Amino acid sequence: MMYATDRLHEEVAYLAFHLGWGMGELLDLEHADRRGYVERTAALLNREEG
């Protein structure tokens, strides 16, 4: 199954914005690892807001 390009770009943009990582670093991550970073980053941001 191929991962949707739009979703990939959203994940990369989100992590690049919040973590300051480069596109190459983010694209080198395995899908599961990148999703994990997205989820952890969102949880931290939500905790700060709440």
Q: What is the mean pLDDT?
A: 92
Discrete helix count: 3
Helix-strand pattern, N to C? HHH
Oligomer: single chain
Distance between the termini: 36 Å
Radius of gyration of CA atoms, rounded to a whole number: 11 Å
What is the 3D form?
A: globular
Query: Based on DSSP secondary structure assignment, what is the total number of beta strands?
Result: 0
Largest sheet: none
Name the poorly predicted regions. none
Range of strand content: under 5%
Instruction: Report the structural category.
Output: mainly alpha
Give the helix level as a range of percent: over 70%
Give an account of the 3D structure.
- The relative contact order is 0.14.
- The model has no long low-confidence stretch (mean pLDDT 92).
- Helix 1 crosses helix 3.
- The chain is an all-alpha fold and 50 residues long.
- The chain is built from three helices and no strands.
